[in-house]
Amino acid sequence: MKLVTLICACLFFVSCGKIKKWVTDLDYKTVDHNQQQWVVTNFTLNLGKNKLPETLEILPRDYGVFRSSSKDGINSIGLDLNISSILNLPSGEATLPNGKPVPIYTSGTGMIEIPFGKLNGKAYVTHVDAMTLVGVAITIKQLDDISLGETMAFGSYMLGNVEVTAGVFISEDKAKSGLAIFANLGSLWNKNIEFDKEAYIFNPAYLSKNKMKKLRDTMDTFLRNDQQLEFY
User: Fold this and answer.
1) Which of 21, 131, 197, 225 is in the most buried spot, having the most CB atoms within 10 Å?
2) Are 73 and 53 in contact (CB under 8 A)?
């Protein structure tokens, strides 16, 4: 049953034998600032002709910064996260802005989520067996018109030495549909620890064949648009 669910959930992301990659490149680094450890992460996105807004969102209590930009045809978002401070927060079952659980199993550790102060989005952090996972979810106005009910379609793949889980989440309610990205960055402060892909397990949601086709067609149209995207 798990295998069938995984296959059905991943079909949306398979085209010509390849998994669709919402994130095509990323880079990250650790920074020590005021005796606290920060992780600076940048994601390059495949959004077709769409353009992300120029945005700088300061997270509550100086937990970090969310960045977004579109320059020379390249769309990117970034997270600068104060890991030392964030890991002192309680963890639990994290949800996407549409209210559905984050599609990643964390071995019972849970996940810390930090709602943005102004935009309708969240940053995520969790730490299991020295493996650090960071994530972001942001709502996009142009995805409000997708009439498929509550839907999630994510895929998971390796990008260099980082495991990325990314996809779209759709809601029947306004301002609750968007894009989410999670990245298992491995051991950030001890490079002698081997990367553990099993620390975080992608937990795909089942989609019917009909809904998969509708979502695929809708997203193909979305990616062909030449428009300025807007965050909520």
Assistant:
1) 131
2) no
